[in-house]
Amino acid sequence: MKQPITGGFAPSYNLQLMTDAAEDLIVGVQVVQAGNDQGQLEKGLQEAQRQTGVAAKQAVVDEGYLSWATVLEMQRRRVDLIAGGTELDARHKTLNQQNLERRGVTAPYYPQAFVYDAEHDLYLCPQGQPLPHRGVKQEGEGVQRHQYRAKTATCRACPHQPQCCPRSGKSLGSGRTITRTEYGQGIKAFLEKMKTPAAQALYQARKRVAEFPNLWLKEKLGLRRFHVRGLPKVICEALWACLTYNIQQWWRARWKPRLVAAAA
User: Fold this and answer.
1) Backbone region of residue 85 per phi and psi (left: phi > 0; alpha: psi in -120 to 50; beta: other values)
2) What are the residue ranges spanned by the domains of the chain?
3) What is the C-alpha to C-alpha distance for residues 254 and 167, in angstroms, rounded to an integer?
4) Cα separation, 124 vs 113, whole angstroms
5) CA angle, corner 237, sides to 229 and 44, nearest 5?
6) How far apart are CA 103 and CA 97, in angstroms?
7) Which residues of 140-179 are buried (b: 16+ CB within 10 A; e: fewer)?
């Protein structure tokens, strides 16, 4: 797997834990060799159902698992997804902002300075020039990126071109482009849900439920690195570690209260 710090490659495994919020127990364990968590939620829910015999009705995950395809898949499965809300769109805006900065676009000509005219489906730049609709890009199911671009001749004649759409090297450049994102009904419903206090409260509770087992395995068992190689052996080590965690949790939940009561 590619390493995030060094940028190189090394033998690595991605440990996936599914935890139950009611009992604070690990109900599913998977070891994959994927560099990120994209697409792992669906597999995790299947593993948890195989282990428990019960299909999950709600899933609370961090933004690493979140994609628009996952949002729609959870809706098809009738699973109430609680996730990072607008993180995906914020990530897109951040990348776009970084790209503008690298190109030399100045703050007065960032996308938020352009005004959208819904009646004529175009944008007006800070100098009042129109950017008509030029096409749409389908970004997976449920997300469309509408592109608006000014005429090349208009931008070349504008005295503010160096601040708005700088030329790249010897290139004469083209007209300024703005992108508008349009979501389908399923994604709109998800985004609106994540704005509610109830959804945000559930999302904040994720840290206690999901992060604690990972921290426990690292601190109590020292499982920061696997001690074996080969996927079957690694899965075995992961299962033993998670079984140890569950036994400890069972002890706390069943026996410790009795001992405290008896001592009192």
Assistant:
1) left
2) 14-86+189-259, 104-183
3) 69
4) 9
5) 100
6) 10
7) eebbeebebbbeeebbeebebbeebbeeeeeeeeebbebb
Signed CA dihedral, 4, 8, 100, 149: sign only: negative
Tens-binned pLDDT, residue by residue, of the chain (264 aa): 777 778 788 888 999 999 998 888 999 999 998 888 888 999 999 999 999 999 999 999 988 888 888 999 999 999 999 987 556 666 667 777 778 888 888 989 999 999 999 999 999 999 999 999 999 998 878 889 999 999 999 998 999 999 998 875 444 567 899 999 899 999 999 989 998 999 989 998 888 888 899 999 999 999 988 999 899 999 999 999 999 999 999 888 887 777 777 776
CA angle 160, 168, 131 (to 5 degrees): 50
User: How many CA within 13 A on the CB side of residue 250?
Assistant: 8
Indicate the length of the chain as a whole number: 264
- Give Cα 207 distance to the centre of its chain: 15
